[in-house]
Design goal:
- This is Lipase 2.
- By secondary structure, this protein is mainly alpha-helical.
- The protein folds into 3 domains: 20-147 and 157-299, no CATH class; 321-455, no CATH class; 463-561.
- Helix content is 57%, strand content 6%.
- It has helices at 20-32, 35-44, 56-71, 92-100, 125-148, 165-188, 193-198, 230-236, 245-250, 255-262, 285-293, 301-348, 353-358, 364-388, 401-424, 428-431, 434-437, 441-453, 478-491, 494-513, 519-522, 528-538, 542-547, 550-556; strands at 49-54, 79-84, 107-112, 212-217, 220-224, 266-268.
- A hairpin with a 2-residue loop joins β4 and β5 (220-224).
- It starts with 19 loop residues before the first helix and ends in a 6-residue tail after the last helix.
Length: 562
């Protein structure tokens, strides 16, 4: 596992595993042959970089592309990958990460209809290891035969095919069917208990496709951008009825023979959910021709239904997003406005909303603020746990600027209240520090969206009048650092206390540099921040004071020491 895939972690902080052989070969080529230096230099010159490869070479090319995309984070994407007979290299975590980073259009995987090897990693290795011992040398010899007969229109064939081909092809088709059918069923009925019960009983391949796919036949090609449709096409186009068994083996080394004609007739699917179930209804007759050539014609009703279902999944994701947009004003804007009003009310009363909320709540204003806090928590948990985690929203949802901004505003305004509530109830005494053991996952996810997409938050200037909104402190966890120091000071725990001070100073430094502190709140004489900072400063040595960011805070706001 290479460190560059750290950026592909999922919501559970899991890093995607990839094919060990492809990763090892990639690392050897990338680190020892000067490729990395050459590619980086070309990229810096503004050149477009295209990685390409056949079979497992395609896997190496895909890893190289991922490496470059990670290295050039935030810059215009001019790195692309084109593979031929690509046999997959990663699981759903990697595939989802590529989609959510909006990198899918950087990959184009070209697959011939009967190329069995491009599906080989959908099969457990134990099921095909014996025939592969004979087939891999045969493929190598066929590739050499292809090089020797360059310009011929016939598929390369080194010699008589090795034995066991019918059984090998049947095994590949069987496992393609299992993976495709299970994945489609799980996507269409994610809460079906029967599907959940079957999963631990059936050992399915973890490999999943990512990027765009160009499925080719001798008469043309179909470009598929819908990733839900890739597995069904990999299966249904491979079905053996009426096929020449030699094609399943020879097409893997026949891309140079078939593609010149296929690339002259490329058709792109835009809306699979409207795919006709009869020969009538095609707006573009070329679609029918290419579907028939891939074995996906009207006679293959199961294939048509699977493709329509794949289209319906994307359509439903868009509809789910539209529902969230309609619900947003009532379910988020209204309670957020009420909490902002609560914060301003506290400031007018010369107190900090964090400290006001932390005190024993007596009035209706505090009660209503708590209800709004809980209402917003439920709504964001619904979005993240029941929509985002289950892929029920568009893949680029967490990359959309408006939702990153909404999530960040919610986190900055409301998480301090969650921290206040945690320490008000004394939960730290049983569960430990908030940041270590109790921070809700929704805040971690929302912060990750902001950090990964480099969205710059528009900060409001400090007010000139009491009714104008003040800027929110740009680290929603600042109060947790402050609280932990306050608790440890009372407990006189010197060793842990030093670590907590380091945590506070680490949080303060970037906030000071970016003018991200809401000093109107922090310098208030009755604020927890004021009391903790004053005590820390009084107990610091001159050397500590000279290096601590707290000196910058006090230098700009000497009233803290009053």
């Amino acid at each position: 596992q290479d460190g560059f895939l750290e950026g592909m972690k999922d919501g559970n902080d899991q890093r995607p595993p990839v094919h060990q052989g492809a990763l090892s070969q990639f690392q050897e080529i990338w680190n020892r042959s000067g490729v990395q230096k050459q590619v980086s230099e070309d990229y810096e010159k503004g050149n477009t970089i295209v990685f390409t490869g056949h079979a497992m070479g395609g896997g190496i090319a895909a890893l190289a592309t991922l490496r470059m995309l990670e290295m050039q984070r935030g810059l215009p994407k001019s790195v692309f990958c084109i593979t031929f007979g690509f046999p997959l290299i990663g699981d759903e975590i990697l595939a989802r990460g590529v989609r959510r980073k909006k990198w899918a259009d950087q990959f184009c995987h070209v697959v011939l209809r009967r190329d069995a090897l491009s599906r080989i990693l959908l099969v457990p290795s134990i099921s095909v290891s014996k025939p592969l011992e004979a087939l891999l040398p045969y493929w190598n010899r066929s590739m050499q035969s292809a090089a020797d007969s360059m310009g011929s229109t016939d598929l390369p064939m080194a010699e008589t095919l090795p034995g066991g081909i019918p059984e090998f092809v049947a095994t590949v088709v069987q496992h393609c069917s299992a993976v495709s059918n299970y994945t489609s069923a799980a996507k269409m009925s994610p809460n079906n208990p029967l599907i959940a019960a079957v999963k631990p009983l059936v050992k399915l391949s973890p490999y999943r496709p990512f990027g765009y796919y160009l499925f080719c036949s001798s008469s043309g090609a179909i470009l598929i951008e819908n990733h839900y449709a890739v597995l069904p096409i990999l299966y249904f186009s491979l079905q053996t009825l009426g096929a020449n068994l030699e094609d399943f083996i020879l097409q893997h080394v026949g891309y140079g023979y078939i593609l010149p004609n296929a690339l002259q007739n490329i058709v792109k699917f835009n809306e699979l959910s409207d795919l006709p179930l009869s020969d009538a209804g095609y707006q573009d007759p070329r679609i029918k021709t290419q579907l028939d050539a891939l074995g996906l014609g009207i006679q293959n009703c199961q294939a048509r239904l699977a493709l329509r279902a794949a289209g319906q999944v994307l359509k439903q994701q868009s509809e789910n997003l539209a529902i969230l947009e309609r619900e947003y004003p009532k379910k988020m804007e209204t309670p957020m406005e009420k909490l902002a009003e609560y914060r301003q009310l506290c400031l007018r009363n010369e107190t900090v909303y964090y400290d006001a909320f932390k005190k024993k709540q007596r009035g209706n204003v505090d009660f209503q603020a708590n209800l709004n806090r809980l209402e917003l928590a439920g709504w964001w948990d619904e979005i993240i746990q029941n929509k985002f985690d289950k892929d029920e929203l568009p893949d680029d949802f967490q990359c959309r600027k408006e939702w990153i901004t909404r999530g960040t505003h919610y986190r900055l305004l409301v998480e301090p209240l969650d921290i206040a509530n945690y320490y008000r109830l004394g939960k730290n005494e049983d569960s430990g520090p908030y940041l270590r053991n109790a921070r809700p996952r929704r805040y971690t996810i929302l912060q990750k969206w902001l950090e990964e997409n480099n969205v710059i938050q528009q900060q409001q200037p400090s007010p000139t009048g009491s009714d104008q909104p003040t800027m929110l402190t740009q680290d929603s966890c600042l109060w947790a650092h402050v609280e932990e120091i306050a608790c440890l000071t009372l407990a006189n725990n010197a060793g842990v206390h030093e670590n907590s001070i380091a945590g506070l100073e680490k949080s303060l430094r970037p906030l000071i540099d970016a003018n991200g502190l809401s000093m109107e709140e922090l310098v208030a004489s009755n604020s927890t921040f004021n009391r903790v900072v004053k005590r820390l400063w009084e107990n610091m040595t001159p050397l500590q004071k000279s290096t601590s960011p707290i000196s910058d805070v006090i230098g700009r706001h000497p009233e803290l020491m009053n």
